[in-house]
Every structure is written in structure tokens, then in C-alpha cells.
Amino acid sequence: MNFEKPKNIEKGRNIDLTIHLMRHGKKRPDGNLSETGAREAQERGAEMGVMKNVKAYTSRVPRVVETAQAVQQGAEIYNKFNQRNRSALSDTLLRAPGTDQPPRFFKETILKRLADAHTAPENNREQRIREAEHQNMQEWLSHDDDFIDETTNSPKNVARAVAHLLVRQIDMSEHLKSGSDVDLLDVTHEFMLAAIIRYAVKKQNEDGSTVSGEEIMREKQSIDYLESLDIEVHIDENGKKTVSLEINGEPYILDMDTLRILSDEYKEGNINTQSN
């Protein structure tokens, strides 16, 4: 009896891959996802429309895991794969390399500012919380590749780790079965999004001038709940790949050269390990 050998499955043609790097939903003062946060996450999922194949990755923090679940509950999904954790999305990435101690800047300074803001009078509580978040983010980003203290990771180190994850996901498109349409939902914390914007994102103005990631984050001040970097990867029938980025529905530029440099530095262990 003769058996035909299976034909090779064609890969890397007519591919649509979208990566949603998203901050978790609104949290309660105790850090857990609030009812409002869960509802808004479902609404965010509904806004994302129909998604044929979805794979979610998260931090291990419950509010992040629950946000990813709520987004998927709100979306119309044909095929959903098991949700998994990724270290580049985890709050443990905020620890300085080589330490197992909680990052002091996050555990003390940031939490105290937010706790104080949550005790403000109700009529200006939300404003106080936003001001605290802005102060926290800008103070952290100002340290670039340096350490605020010996337990807290630098913004650039965080960007290196997240860049490595994103590069792997973007390159994955070349190995997907031709005709695939896939969404990757990367739910994480605001500092991971801010670090990528700071080092690997630009924006082009109508007059042709370019706004750097540092300027973008200075203007944004912080990252909103459920805000996302939506990276669209398209490979046409000839194998030509294009990568585009939107934030809040507006076009931005994802600097792939810089993203790959950051990723390579992470992969090769070329990161800053000396605290100041």
C-alpha cells in the first residue's frame, strides 16, 4: 500500500498578527481589580471586535490576570488558547537584577503616594490619584539606565526585557501558517508600556518633524488604565512584512531597529547591573 507524504504547510504568507500590549484595568486601594475595572475591561474587549485566534499573556498579579480574562469575555473570539504568564510582563521585572528583594521605590514611595491620594476628599480624589501616578512615572523614567535604589530596576532594563518579548512575538509571524489571523493580548503594568514608549516609539508630526519617545512620555505623564500599544504585523502574499503601531487610535512609529538592539542587549545579558 502506498502512502502519500504530507505536503509541507506553507508559512509566512498573508499573515495578520496584532499584539496588544495593555495596562490592566482600574484597581481598588488594596491593589485588586475593581468592579469598574472589570466592567471597563469587558467593554474594551467589545471595542476590539471580532478576533479569530487569541492568545493572552500576563503578569501573575491577580488584577492583571483578571483584566485579560475580562477583555476576552467582552470580545467576540472564535478560538481562544490557554492564558499564560510571561516574566517580561511581571511586576518582578521591576526588581533590580540580582536581587530577590521587592523594589523599594515601588513598594514604599509609590504605594505611599497612592495611599495618600486615595484618602483625599472624594471631590478631588481622582485628580490626586492621577497626580500621584504622574509623579511616580516621571520620577522613575528620569533615571534612564540608572537605579533609583539598589532594589529597583532601571527603565531601560525594563524596556530591554519587554522589547525581547515583542521582537519574539513579531518574528513569530513568519512561522505562522499562511492565511493566519492572530491576536496576542499582553496585559501588564503601566511601567512596561512607558518603558517601551520611552525608548522605542516615535511620532511624526504633520510638518514632518519627529517627536521622541522621551517627549511623548513627558507629555503623556503616565499610562491610563487599559491603554494599549497596538502593534499590527502584516505579511503579504510575497512575504513582505510591515509593522505599524497605534496608541489610542493614533498612528505612531515603532522603531524596529531600536527594539531589536534592546532585545539583543537583553538576550546577551548586556544590561545595567550596577546600582548608583
From TrEMBL:
<dbReference type="InterPro" id="IPR029033">
    <property type="entry name" value="His_PPase_superfam"/>
</dbReference>
<protein>
    <recommendedName>
        <fullName>Phosphoglycerate mutase</fullName>
    </recommendedName>
</protein>
<feature type="region of interest" description="Disordered">
    <location>
        <begin position="25"/>
        <end position="44"/>
    </location>
</feature>
